[in-house]
Amino acid sequence: xxxxxxxxxxxxxxxxxxxxxxxxxxxxxxxxxxxxxxxxxxxxxxxxxxxxxxxxxxxxxxxxxxxxxxxxxxxxxxxxxxxxxxxxxxxxxxxxxxxxxxxxxxxxxxxxxxxxxxxxxxxxxxxxxxxxxxxxxxxxxxxxxxxxxxxxxx
Length: 154
Known about the structure:
Elements: H1 3-16, E1 22-32, E2 45-54, H2 64-67, E3 74-81, E4 84-90, E5 100-106, H3 126-131, H4 139-144, H5 147-153
Antiparallel strand pairs: 1-2, 2-3, 3-4, 4-5
């Protein structure tokens, strides 16, 4: 991850901390793996992160008796090999070894667009392509869509 991205991530985590909430960075180190099903040769080295996101006091009051405390901690393992990243999300204190989510991400912009087959950026099979759902995200628009309303409320 580039220096600016790392600074932004750490700053956001710092601002969210308090009341038992926040993100604990357990591990942050470079990785270099042999070619495998998860990592092709171009994405087998980068930065590994292991983080625990603590919900703390952000859970609704009615949910706390069921999944309060460490049971709501979301564990994230991320392998970032810019522009590709792969994350595994678990709730090991609530569903130990029984449930997880995977997130694959490819950030492609500007001059990089021409380097990739953006119609099938993850080289999916025909069956997977049929089931795929594409979500386009315009960060600038989404961030500032209700900016005028936010200013009036403050």
